[in-house]
Amino acid sequence: MSEVSKYESIINDLNLIETQAEILKNKAKDIELRNSQVERIIEQLKAENALLNQKVAKLEEELERLNVKTELDIFNSLTSKEKEALKSKIEDLISKIDYHISS
Q1: How many helical (H) and strand (E) elements, i.e. helices and strands, does the chain have?
Q2: Quick count: other Cβ atoms within 10 Å of Cβ 84?
Q3: Is the pTM of this model over 0.85?
């Protein structure tokens, strides 16, 4: 092979390597850009998730408060006769439980 053709072959190889390096450099920049965009989205979603968790906790507290209030309202809505009947039934059940425990 002559010196000129070796030189041309090396130049062609170098041009090819340079082109491939440029392509890889551009792909790396694109990937870096996408990664930074994804990281921003992740941070936004984390913040939104924390906010939603706070809202869920507040709603759970409100629900618990309403459940307790409803239970108290149900008991307070009983008439004195109904309260006495309930008290009597509870005393009967306690007596039965005591009897079964003692035997």
Answers
A1: 2, 0
A2: 11
A3: no
